[in-house]
């Protein structure tokens, strides 16, 4: 494969438009394998949380070039933690007897690192340790920069990461996976980034993290609705399994309304300038998502579907990407032109 061909493959994997089953994993280069194994398509959610935390800092204190290094390190550390979480998730699911055949949801839409022959179980665990070690190294440097309280954020992040799929009672198996995502991608990531840059964590930053934290949480709801039948058979008690599909769809719609209402509330209460209202431009995609949620999932893969049996997740994730991008753009304009109501 040419250099341009590899770059195209990497881009499509990161963008979620690459057909994972179009060619055997043995033919992929090492970077493509890493991107697939770590489920890199969702790293954008982590990067957005860091950028939001950084922009909230700049909104309060102004910009300086000295911010760039710690901000880049936070991105590196949190993306490494996210990668480790996804790798360990696959490792522990296999150990718990969930991802054990090609009939289960996970390897049906995306090559499983071990079931696909991409790597051994030990190799999967070792790669997770490498990502975790990178995250710990970054955290150690940030402790020197900002002080020992950084360890609180890093420690809580590792705890959620390991407890999500590992341990005797994984969070995602007892209906706590969705709430943990809200905490991690909101207060921990956004708040932690702000703390690394400023040494403080005012409560308004936590409040300002709510819209995006809710939006990320909806992505997990979409995924778990798609796999509700699989999880029910295996006794994995996600929120959709506990509430049922129709009730969960109503909760998902309510969460999306909450995300937009939170943005409006932040502007009205002068937590952030008016430019944050640009996020409302994502509403057409939210309405499209509402329409999809109001209909039953197709019984067979529609033409052009490349990650079936994913269905609702695709629409929810596309909405999250639009919502997150506009929230970031809005905050950037708030920094450049801080106009309040």
Give a nutshell description of this structure:
By secondary structure, this protein is an all-alpha fold.
Structural write-up:
With 341 residues, this protein is mostly helical. The chain has two domains: 1-37, no CATH class; 38-336, Farnesyl Diphosphate Synthase (Orthogonal Bundle), CATH 1.10.600. The protein is 68% helix and 0% strand. α3 (43-61) packs antiparallel against α4 (68-95). The longest helix has 28 residues, at 68-95. The protein is globular and about 50 Å long. The mean pLDDT is 91.
The span between the termini is 54 Å
- Compute the gyration radius: what is it? 20 Å
- Helix percent reads 55-70%
Silhouette: globular
Q: Summarize the helix and strand pattern as letters.
A: HHHHHHHHHHHHHHH
In quaternary terms, these chains amount to single chain
| Number of helical regions | 15
Top CATH class of the largest domain: Mainly Alpha
Estimated share of beta-strand residues? under 5%
Structural class: mainly alpha
Question: Within the CATH hierarchy, at the fold level, what is the topology of the largest domain?
Answer: Farnesyl Diphosphate Synthase
Q: What is the tally of beta strands? A: 0
In CATH, the architecture of the largest domain is Orthogonal Bundle
- What's the mean pLDDT score? 91
Overall number of domains: 2
What profile does the largest beta sheet have? none
Q: What are the low-pLDDT stretches, counting only 5+ consecutive residues below 50?
A: none
